[in-house]
Amino acid sequence: MRYPEQTFVILPLKEEKMRKTILYLSFFIVIIFGAKATTGDKISLLITKAKEFYEKGDKDAALNALENAIVEIKNTRKLTIKNLHLCKKIMGYQLIEKRDGNMLNSGDPLLVYFEPENFMVKSKNGKYEVWLSEDARLLDEKGKVLFEKKDWVSIHQEFDTPIFPLFFQDRITGIPPGKYRLEITLNDKLKGSFVTRVVEFSVK
Question: Staple 99 to which of 59, 86, 141, 197, CB 3.0 to 4.6 Å?
Answer without folding.
Answer: 86
